[in-house]
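pasting for the record
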Amino acid sequence: RLYRTGDLARRLPDGGLELLGRADRQVKIRGYRVEPGEIERVLVGHPAVREAAIIVHGDETRRLVAFIVPAGTAATAPELTAYLRGRLPDYMVPGAFRIVEQLPLTPSGKVDRGALARSAAFIDLPRPEERTYVAPRTPTEEKLARIWADVLQVERVGVEDDFLEAGGHSLLALPLMQQIRAQLGVHLPLSALFTTRTVAELASTVVKVQAEQADAELLAELLREIEQMPAEDLRTALAEEKPTPEAAE
């Protein structure tokens, strides 16, 4: 039985297969399969973009880089980022944009992505340590910042740093949440990391959950004490709490 996987391969003399790449240009980013052509189609829908090409930059930490041929006045990177985030998942938003007069072409007239990849080697993608740093202000923020820095393997993390923009992705979310549970005693769903994406936002969620857990633990302790009380003592305690008719008046 054969399956159409979209991979290109050739059969070797010994019967083995040599993988040559993808037929559909799919790439894997943050554990997700991404079709660059889909991002390009969305980009050219922006009024300031005439042409667009997406390539992958880096080996260990793979990031998307967008090459843009502007239609008139070029849009800024923040404008394009906001435009894409309103239409695509975060993992499909390029980490860098480069404005070019024209896209390089192969002799057959197709976009020369090899030439783009070589030029992308000189693009400095934003690094977490280069962002505006806001130091932790509370013990919870300090603990979360240390956990983030450890998981993301960076020197420091500010409370306003965004998990995804700092290099985080779905594969790092699980170990990060495990560390939060081990060090802060709070169990959070993975989805919390994608809805409260900064240290400050996540710290607020952690404090709220800790308060709810404390209330639940206090109630459970009171119920255990009540269950252990002799019936006569329990009736006496309830009678003392019940207001008399005179007190009610």
